[in-house]
Design a protein that fits this description.
The structure is a single chain. It contains 3 helices and 19 strands. With 275 residues, the chain is mainly beta. The protein has one domain. The strands form 3 sheets. Strands 5, 6, 8, 9, 11, 12, 14, 17, 18 and 19 form a 10-stranded mixed beta sheet that branches. Helix 2 packs antiparallel against helix 3. The N terminus is likely disordered.
Length: 275
């Protein structure tokens, strides 16, 4: 058994994956038009009873560390319905100094389409270094439900976070116009920053949810009832934005799952979320 890292051309071997999926409407159902998979990026498609399509992203490398890179690209044709999720929580492990793990996602949705971006939680371990980006382009009447949840160490395992670098960038456009943008960055002294009451107040699980829909303002008060005191919601100009925090992923999910059902018209989450 090797007791040293595998080296390729003078550097440690790194994980890399690219997944691209295009879907179109065929006889009233959303179906695969084009599929490309490379490296450790895989896509699987569970059978669902509805007319929409469910895509499950898999990182066969089993996690990411500094120097690893994942790229995902999804294109929905007109009047398509797609739910995109992950097989499991993505784990971001300790990075060698000066190396960064990158995860970039690009989504396009045609007219009359609906896309639900529902990855499971990203777990950051001590000394992790992650740069994540989400870029979404929607047609004028397309709708989207977008969520990203991040866990800073697993409380049940007694993990603590002192040094982590993490940046998260969102850009959402509709008909080419920027309608939502945010940048979040923390580190390297994340442990002390997390304790600040103006940030997470020492909570270690956080989620951001964005609904783009002309009817989202009607869901604002019901959403606030689900969110409770550990979070908040606002709605304006066809958007509903939610932030929630909690002590760990388990307690966060207890509110996140009913919230996503509400914002998704009562539809259940992909079954992979409960396995």
């Amino acid at each position: 058994m090797l007791d040293y890292p595998l080296v390729v051309q003078g550097r440690a071997q790194r994980a890399s994956g690219t997944g691209r999926l295009s879907v179109r409407k065929v006889e009233g159902k959303t179906r695969i038009a084009k599929l490309f998979q490379e490296g450790c990026a895989k896509l699987r498609f569970p059978v669902v009873a509805e007319d929409g399509l469910e895509a499950v992203m898999i990182n066969s490398a089993g996690g990411l560390t500094g120097g690893d890179a994942m790229q995902w690209n999804f294109v929905l044709g007109d009047f398509c319905n797609a739910h995109i999720t992950t097989q499991a929580c993505e784990k971001i492990y300790k990075a060698v100094s000066g190396t960064v793990a990158t995860v970039s996602t690009h989504i396009e949705a045609g007219k009359g389409s609906f896309v639900a971006w529902l990855p499971q939680e990203t777990i950051l371990f001590e000394a992790a270094d992650l740069k994540r980006s989400l870029n979404v382009n929607l047609a004028a009447d397309a709708k989207a439900l977008l969520v990203e949840s991040t866990i800073f160490g697993r409380k049940a395992f007694g993990e603590t976070i002192d040094t982590v670098r993490f940046s998260d960038q969102w850009r959402v456009r509709q008909e080419g116009q920027l309608i939502h943008a945010e940048n979040f960055a923390i580190g390297p002294n994340a442990g002390s920053s997390l304790k600040r009451s103006a940030l997470f107040g020492d909570y270690r699980a956080v989620t951001t949810v964005l609904l783009v829909s002309p009817h989202c303002e009607q869901l604002l008060e019901p959403a606030r009832l689900v969110i409770g005191e550990r979070g908040g919601a606002s709605s304006w100009m066809g958007k509903l934005l939610v932030r929630m925090v909690d002590i760990d992923a388990y307690h966060l999910r207890k509110r996140l799952i009913p919230l996503l059902r509400l914002l998704n018209g009562g539809a259940e989450l992909p079954r992979i979320w409960s396995t």
